[in-house]
Amino acid sequence: MKAIVHENKAGLEGLTYKEVSEPEVKKNQVKVQLKAAGMNRRDIAVTHRHSPDSGPLVLGSDGAGVISEVGEDVSQWKVGDEVVINPGLGWANISEAPPEGFEILGLPDDGTFGEYIVIDQDHVETKPNHLSWIEAGVLPLAALTAYRVLFTRGRVKKGDTVMLPGIGSGVLTFALKFAKAIEARVIVTSRSQEKLEKAKSLGADVAIDTNSDWNEELKDEKVDLLIESVGRATFNKSLKIIRKGGTIVTFGATTEDTVEIDIRHFFYGQFNLLGSTMGSAEELRSMLAFIEQHQIKPEVDRTFQLSEYDYAFNYLKDTKNFGKIGFDLS
Predict the structure, then answer these.
(1) Calculated CA dihedral for residues 49, 303, 252, 141, nearest 10 degrees
(2) Global confidence as pTM
(3) Which residues belong to any copy of the Enoyl reductase (ER) domain (predicted)?
(4) Angle at CA 75, nearest 5°, toward 70 and 76?
(5) Which fold has domain 144-275?
């Protein structure tokens, strides 16, 4: 089969598009003929984390397709079923943190940037009917991350004000859509006027420049929950804009990941600071039910062929996207 492979060199220079052996199905596994796969910033990080000396690795965490073969003892799936891949390996039930041994598909295991993938039968879920193949393929990792951030960790509720600095990523566009679905108020920031306008078209109530004075721009707002994924560039601005007793949930850092805070300001403000990453299979199923209930679709920015991997990875690296980037394998 054809696949995007990382080998021989660290970083993006180690990427190639080549013929590799089609994976074989074992007991309790299913083979999925992929129709679409989704990109995440993790894919770029993996090109630096994966050791070139450890052999070739098929990248990719997100995907959707049709089951083409089932292994021995597979009872819940059959050939022809349309499924999405659960990229979180080894996290079955909701818990305060991932269990020991939790991994994300695409490192160390081969991922979704190929024509086929073999995966345990309990790591696929039924594809929502209202989604196209591309929409289903880009969905799982980012949507699950946003769902856990908002509902499990942030405990958002109707009427809350949620702030999303640096709108444009897959996770934050899902967070915007999820928050609006439960009638929360949403504030977004970006350095791009185009991204601010797109966010407003999706329902954002307030959209401001990331480099502006947030306290002046939002002096009439009360931020209950802030989703922080930028890092050092915005973290202290985030800490100074949430209401006393408010909550910051952080799931990543696109700028420097080391920050310094005024601890006295923090404890006087009675703030809550929570971490989050991905989510469990139980939360994935809840997220899929939620998007079906509200007929939510991913915001798809662009799609590429697998052979266009070089342009696709650099497009993602330069943060040009608003929403998700996908590979079309149909």
Answers:
(1) -90
(2) 0.95
(3) 10-327
(4) 95
(5) Quinone Oxidoreductase; Chain A, domain 1 (3.90.180)
